[in-house]
């Protein structure tokens, strides 16, 4: 792996770049640097934004100057332990697949040349790594979808995809945390709210966690949905995990 | 009580310093675009620098006060009028229950800030009262203000200490704006010619200028290859160059991550100047080192805290 590069991002931020590809190893380094920074107790850092292959470190130049921060960050970045994959949690997201909840499931199944149940089985049999959050509040960029269920985006994007939709776009899969326009194929819907600005923890998961989609029938969807509306539903969260099944 | 909106104006929102620590979750920081003007408005009425204010865009609102208090208007000159008479800007002004504040033509600048002594009674969401328009939370109901909206004062003041001192010289806006830019993080993605174009040519602010970003028009900044980058974090003031070759400067409501190459980042102290530009205005970029930009920011911060001590301690 290449040496981490420290890039200038203005007078109040810098970027530490670990490579130029999307891989779990590189992303693991990004998250490890974020943890190392938190543990270092370095003063003046206001927030960090982890992405696929780099960490944006925002800081207050009235507290720490670029040259000093660069030196300290560079030392940390060059002495990270082996990328701690499996350090994140596994967050179980219940999903009601197909029917009114995922109207494009038949198209995805047809494109993959398999039964709808098989698409659901494949989609829900993996722990997907969250490489980063961005684009929308709580929108998770997930890695590792089985290419057999990859489906091209819609030719004409929908004007509004409802919040909670679980969808496939090309080789990617994800959850829409808020209603948004989009061209991904809707295969299901979750009754939980990945994003709720009024919740103590507004987003259910972090970069470095893994998401496991758990199929639930309609009645269970409705039960969880009503609990969720009252703020009384807690997603199952397990510590540690890899991208393979159980 | 506090204020009641009679007419909302073009885009009037509640803003403060914005949110810190939520960008890793994909949540934009929000906050006042002209932070300096917001801070000055607050200091004039004896508030802490980051108390929530109204950010008023181009066409100002008309509002009625429903309690006595002190207010200050800073930023662009949008012709504030109190009970039919021109109201001084950059000064603490007493207002009475029933007074009406309105705005006339935008004489200079683009955004005005209206601060209220003691602040506005609004919920704090994720550590801030700022309105996040895209996600619809914060501020007043997560949206821009509309006619009929009423916001109470938190703790209105009957008097302000050192009242005669509470007036400042108003800056003037307009003409060509020079924005100082620190090169990077993806300056390598551009040809030497492209970087030269960026720093030597003049750009125009387009109507695509909102709280998310400011799109410019002008000569194409040439890149080495057309490829976008793997999405990374976007700092405030980042200058993205999409495939059109025309710069877009990312502001408070920006998306937190993106895949366009960023040639540079506008110095923090110059973001306030950009906030006062209007569509059609000319902008030039000037290269600055990170050390120099940080020195300017420290100097400005020091100056503002000195003013705070002078007025409010």
Keywords, separated by commas or semicolons:
heterodimer, A: alpha+beta, Cyclophilin, eight-stranded mixed β-sheet, four-stranded antiparallel β-sheet, 5 helices, B: alpha+beta, six-stranded antiparallel β-sheet
Task: Please specify the SSE layout and strand pairing.
The complex is a heterodimer of chains A (246) and B (313).
Chain A: E1 5-8, E2 13-17, H1 24-40, E3 45-50, E4 54-59, H2 66-78, E5 89-97, H3 105-112, H4 116-123, E6 127-133, E7 140-143, E8 158-161, E9 165-169, E10 172-175, E11 180-182, E12 185-189, E13 210-215, H5 218-229, E14 237-239
Parallel strand pairs in A: 5-13
Antiparallel strand pairs in A: 1-2, 2-4, 3-4, 5-12, 5-14, 6-7, 6-13, 8-11, 9-10, 9-12
Chain B: E1 2-7, E2 11-15, H1 35-44, E3 53-57, E4 62-65, E5 69-77, E6 80-82, E7 85-86, E8 93-95, E9 100-103, E10 108-116, E11 150-152, E12 177-183, H2 192-200, E13 202-209, E14 213-217, E15 232-233, E16 238-241, E17 248-250, E18 257-258, E19 261-266, H3 271-275, E20 282-287, H4 290-312
Parallel strand pairs in B: 12-20
Antiparallel strand pairs in B: 1-4, 1-11, 2-3, 3-10, 4-9, 5-8, 5-10, 6-7, 6-9, 12-19, 13-14, 13-20, 14-17, 15-18, 16-17, 16-19
Keywords (chain A): ATP-binding, Hydrolase, Nucleotide-binding
Pfam family, one (chain A): CT_C_D
Protein name (chain A): Kinase A inhibitor
